[in-house]
Amino acid sequence: MPDSARKATARALAWLAKAQSSDGSWGDSRYPHNTAITSFALLAFLSQGHVPDRGPYGKEVGKGMRFLLSCAREDGYLIGTRGGNMYNHGMATLALAELW
Description:
Blueprint: H1 3-19, H2 35-47, H3 58-70, H4 86-99
Helix pairs in contact: 2-3, 2-4
């Protein structure tokens, strides 16, 4: 990866770490505590080798992972209490598979 891309990625991960909600999720005003958005953020950290509870972003990755796990309904649907759809479920499933 070129040095400029490496620096941009580092800045992006630092921004994501600051944008994480206290419950471990990521989202915006329209979609707070969203499993899909949280999954995208986690995949960004994972793509750079960050894992739950280890290293510089381990705390953020661990909190995000626990948020996704807390969103599992009794039937296994990963949308949480705020609702969602199959897209949210699919992205959460992908992120959890990568975390595994």
